[in-house]
Amino acid sequence: MAQDQFSSASPKLSDMRVDNISEQLGVIDSLPALNLDIPDNELIKNLNYRIEDSRGYWDQPQGFNLKQARANNSKLLVGKELETTTLYRYQKMYVENQIFVANESIIAYLTQNPAVPEVMPAQDSITSRKLATDMEKVLKAHSQIVNLDRIVDTMARNLLSKRIGIVYWEFDPNYGDNGEVIPHVVDPEHVILDKNCPLGGNPAFVCHVLKYSVEELCYRYPEKKKQIFDKLGIQRGTPKQMTKVIAVRRVWLTYYKNGEPIEACVTYFGDLVLGKYKDPNWNYAKGKNFLRSHKKPFTFLNYINDGQHLIDITTPIEQASPMQEILNKRTRQITENADKANGTLVISTSSGLTKDDLQNWTGDPNQKLLIKTGGQSVEQLVYQVPPHDLPAWVINDKVDARTQILTIMGTPTEFTGTEDGTQGEGSLGQSMMKKNQASGRQDLILRGIHNFLNEYYNQLVQMMAVWYDKDHFFVYNGGDGDFDYITINRDMIEDGLAVNVKAGIGAGSDKARQEAIALQLLKMDKISILDAYKDLHLEGAQNRYDNYAKEKADPMGMARDAMDQVSDGRAFVDFTKIMNGVDVKDFTDRSKEYVLTMRKLMLTDEFLDADAKKQNRLLKFVKKVLDNVERRYALDQATQSQGVEALDPSKPFPPLQPFNPQTQMGQGQPGSMAPGGAPAPGGMPAPGGMPAPGAPGQLPPGALPVSALQQGAPGGAMPGGLTGGIPAPQAGTGLPNMANPGAAAPQNPSQLPVV
Q1: Residue 655 sits in which domain range?
Q2: Is 422 exposed, middle or buried (0-12, 13-18, 19+ CB in 10 A)?
Q3: Number of domains comprising the chain
Q4: Which of 224, 221, 225, 194 is nearest to 207 (CA)?
Q5: Residue ranges in the chain whose pLDDT is less than 70
Q6: pLDDT of amino acid 597
């Protein structure tokens, strides 16, 4: 843009095509079209124009001056002088890098306790709550796989030195068995953003510059190998030729067709298009997407931003850089003055000493000086000029520059843990107040990181909704010593699922001090237990207190609740798949907890209101699972009574024997249940299990009642089998006992619909 369009009174961002448009009317800019349907050479030409036009806008000295600002910030962080500093040959560079100290203190504060995801169920149902809980654990487990802490650390560094942090999303099919969604931290200097996009918007284009060797380029685009060779003048493809590194532009763009926006991607270098296609990170035909609007696969982190652009207008480092230069200069002056503490030796030419003699003079205390006095006093021939005493204001100016840097960065010495050269200023309480005030300044950046993580997790779920067409397995360690094994695929991502982040605890809240106060108040009985749990920052404080209250009121009731809360993640996975019309064929290696969980799911409205085809498919599947579990249980019982002889393959398989799952789970002896759900002393399981063919209660062809899981006596204990020993529903209601949601199904098939 022409220089004369700016004046000394104009604001910093005065580009009349982008920023200063309030006085404009009509056409203010002309940009070439972006469309996958135009010829490749024209498409590349248009892309290059748009990219260079936006790059020129960002690098305008009168505007963002982005390239120069980033270069200066990088130099200041590593302790290099800027070009504005000129030194004489005898001078040495001296840097007291307070910007580095402040920057590292900010990074440590921002990343010490990052926010965590919180997933809210789509519906108020057992299945939805379980799916939401599993999704939350999957997001946390995925964060451990990709090392989210390091991602946040790098993003924060880029934000403070390069005015933005950028994550690029990609599905890597070669990661693990079924591929994985991988977030990549991108160097902002390798990305050119659309100049017209506001904060939080979807840019018209994002140009991501990548570097590939010729060998890797041919691997990624095998159908373009000949064109790549022709473009680079390669004939045979020697090792030296194949290891050449090529800069490639991958441009994500938006264009319109029939009035509808379309997200697409074009990859090219020179005038060769390697690939152009619609954004693969979106479900088009099926239409099941987690995000409400289609955006490019990038997530941005911002801080000092007025909302007009994707890139921040400044950084704390840029604001503190003038004071850093002053600090370096003052410190160098003090150092040079200290070097002259011995003064300057002046020798008269009448002393008889030559220049060579003076060159050999080292100042060694034992060195002797031989001169000709010629009747003059020694003081007149050799004189030590005393050093110049620096005025006090020079030292004070240095201290003031150091203090101003830390003030601008929002990191006083109480925050960084350094000394400012003063002693005895302020009490401990005053120091804590300064530290907390500084933490409040950094909470603005922390808020930006929380917003970034919120978009991060939502984009991650969107990628899972697209790419998790097969089961993906995660192991989550919640910190309680137990490991959760979770299976997830895109069919388990419900419509209406919501993902937010719970803020982490920053250093400004003085976590240790808050916990110490809570413990002291708890000893004095001056605080409620629930509030103490919260002040101690225990996860799930409300749930911990609920369990504490239940145990105090009714210990056995607490034990019954634990039985009712038995759940197996695979049961929810299989149930969700079958309810979505997927045919699950693997019914092996299921546990008793699996069967109990499946029974609870079959008493929900989601199953009872499902169509007959889905009900029938699920019941047949559960019947196979029951047969498999009973067979394995019979073999286990026979092994305990007969030893390893029961494993002899030449002998017939032992007959199926029922067992009590509650006994296996450590909740009582085999037998019937006493009132209230407690096991009756000495009770023994009655013969049970699945009804034999032709016996009463046999499943008729085409009619599989819910009660096929196990027959039982109304109002009493189930007689045995896999689900024996658990109270049945209230007699005559056909509904599960609400005091025990895990109760078995009713005996009478007429109480529930037959499918």
Answers
A1: 569-751
A2: exposed
A3: 2
A4: 194
A5: 1-12, 83-85, 286-287, 415-438, 478-482, 503-512, 540, 557-567, 642-755
A6: 85
Contact 205, 51 (CB under 8 A): yes
The token pair at 110 is 């921002």
Q: What does the alpha-carbon distance between residue 602 and residue 616 come to, in Å, rounded to a whole number?
A: 12
Cα gap 371→347, rounded to integer Å: 10
- Alpha-carbon gap, residue 318 to 110, rounded angstroms: 19
Q: Which two structure tokens, joined as six digits, stand for 112?
A: 């010490």
Nearest in space to 660 (alpha carbons), one of 681, 631, 695, 630: 630
Q: Residue 581 in contact with residue 604, Cβ under 8 Å?
A: no
Residue 637's nearest CA partner among 667, 599, 664 is 664
Q: Which residues contact 454 (CB under 8 A, 6 or more apart)?
A: 115, 499, 500, 501
Tokens of 343: 């003064």
Q: Please check whether residue 730 lies inside any domain of the structure.
A: yes
406 phi and psi angles, rounded to 5 deg: -65, -30
Q: Rg of the chain over CA atoms, in angstroms? A: 37
* Gap between the Cα atoms of 745 and 751, Å rounded: 10
Q: Which two tokens stand for residue 101?
A: 């100290």
pLDDT of residue 351: 78
Q: In which element (H, E) is residue 545 found? A: helix 541-553
Which residues in 173-297 belong to E strands, given as ranges? 180-186, 191-193, 205-213, 245-257, 260-269, 272-278
Residue type, 523: K
Amino acid identity for residue 620 in this structure: K
In a domain, 640, yes or no: yes
Two tokens, residue 594: 């699996």
Q: Identify any residues that bridge with 588 across adjacent strands, giving them in sequence order.
A: none
Q: Is 347 exposed, middle or buried (0-12, 13-18, 19+ CB in 10 A)?
A: middle
Helices (H), 221-341: 225-232, 239-242, 316-339
Query: Domain boundary residue among 354, 386, 418?
Result: 386
Report pLDDT for 548.
84
Contact, 296 vs 145, CB < 8 A?
Answer: no
pLDDT at residue 260, as a whole number: 92
257, 525, 558, 662, 668 from 675: Cα distances, Å: 69, 38, 16, 15, 14
The span from the CA of 118 to the CA of 458, in Å, is 11
Residue 576 lies in a domain: yes
Cβ neighbors of 163 (< 8 A, separation 6 or more) are: 64, 66, 69, 70, 188, 311, 312, 313, 314, 315
Instruction: Note whether 291 and 458 are within 8 A (CB).
Output: yes
Provide the pLDDT for residue 32: 94
Contacts of residues 189-197 at CB distance under 8 Å and 24 or more positions apart, as own/partner, are: 189/70, 189/162, 191/166, 192/51, 192/54, 192/55, 192/58, 193/54, 193/58, 193/310, 193/311, 194/50, 194/54, 194/310, 195/18, 195/53, 195/54, 195/57, 195/58, 195/309, 196/18, 197/309, 197/310
Residues 6+ apart with CB under 8 A from 125: 604, 605, 606
Alpha-carbon gap, residue 529 to 523, rounded angstroms = 11
Cα–Cα distance for residue pair 475/138, rounded to 1 Å: 8
The DSSP annotation for 100-156 comes to HHHHHHHHHHHHSS--EEEEE-SSSSHHHHHHHHHHHHHHHHHHHHHTHHHHHHHHH
Q: Catalogue the long-range contacts made by 443-447 (C-beta closer than 8 Å, 24 or more residues apart).
A: 443/506, 443/508, 444/303, 445/106, 445/110, 445/156, 445/159, 445/303, 446/109, 446/110, 446/503, 446/504, 446/506
Residue 733 lies in a domain: yes
